[in-house]
Amino acid sequence: MGRPSVLVLAGTAEAVALAGRLVSSGAVDVLASLAGRTRNPAPLPCPVRTGGFGGAEGLAAALRDGGHALLVDATHPFAAAMPGHAAAAAEAAGVPRLRLVRPPWRPGPGDDWVPVPSMAAAAAALDRLGARRALLTVGRQELAAFAGVGADLVVRSIDPPDVALPPGAAVVLARPPFDEAGEAALLAEHGVDTLVTRNSGGAATAPKLAAARAAGVRVVMVGRPAPPPGPVAETVDEAVAWVAGYVPGAGATIR
Ligand code: NAP
């Protein structure tokens, strides 16, 4: 009998790290799945399949047809559809599922955060707060919500925005990780008084929050969708331990 197979729904740094840990254990086969949306995805240390499954039913069929023993949903904290599909598909296929999602950022002393539940609420908050110049770091697919805001906008994204932006909006193309000095310079250069971000969590994009704190820039923080009921891991270590609960050797590293 071959090794048990783990299907990892990827698209995050955590998925890359988890796949690496599991592959290096030698105890499981790992297949990573990408939506195919990102132009230059980070390389994965295992076989990769690309493209949607066709909803929860398609994913359930892929779990059965692929003979996968376990499913780890390591999609982005703001992935809207996949966590629900993964939960439904795993239940239908009788395959244990874990949601791996990094912890959210939390405000600390000196932070001026305005929590909001959605992009539409973030856009409304800019007008309500009287923001004059706002830096949007929300993902280019979320920009449409800001088309009518009164503030001048600075949009930072990895790939060029493909929606119409208000006249005068500045676009800064950049790829994480970022550092605090660079973030401070960006805020100062554009005279930003309000930063809008999703609460993605993680270290790669956290320096903007430290820079905002130091500069007295307020942060409109868009909260995450709640994960579906079921086990949740916040770290790769926890996810490896979950897999090792089913396949004991999966927690080991072969050197
Ligand atoms: P989504 O709303 O959860 O997914 C939309 C559809 O894309 C899903 O219904 C599924 O299609 C397909 N899909 C998503 N993740 C997939 C995966 N890992 N493998 C195969 N198909 C997948 O997610 P999204 O916000 O569009 O994001 C798409 C992908 O980009 C996710 O994998 C996510 O981790 C990654 N990502 C998202 C963000 C973000 O801000 N949302 C940021 C960084 C990376 P079917 O229904 O046909 O299966």
Strand and helix layout:
Layout: E1 5-9, H1 13-25, E2 29-34, E3 48-50, H2 55-65, E4 68-73, H3 82-93, E5 97-100, E6 113-116, H4 119-129, E7 133-137, E8 152-157, E9 170-173, H5 180-189, E10 194-198, H6 207-215, E11 218-222, E12 232-233, H7 236-246
Parallel strand pairs: 1-2, 1-4, 2-3, 4-5, 5-12, 6-11, 7-8, 7-10, 8-9, 10-11
Residues 9-12, 33-35, 37, 52-55, 58-59, 75-76, 78-82, 85, 139 line the site of NADP nicotinamide-adenine-dinucleotide phosphate.
What does this molecule look like?
This protein has seven helices and twelve strands. α1 links the parallel β1 and β2. With 255 residues, it is of the alpha/beta class. It has a six-stranded parallel beta sheet, sandwiched between helices. The longest helix is centred in the N-terminal third of the chain and has 13 residues. The structure holds NADP nicotinamide-adenine-dinucleotide phosphate.
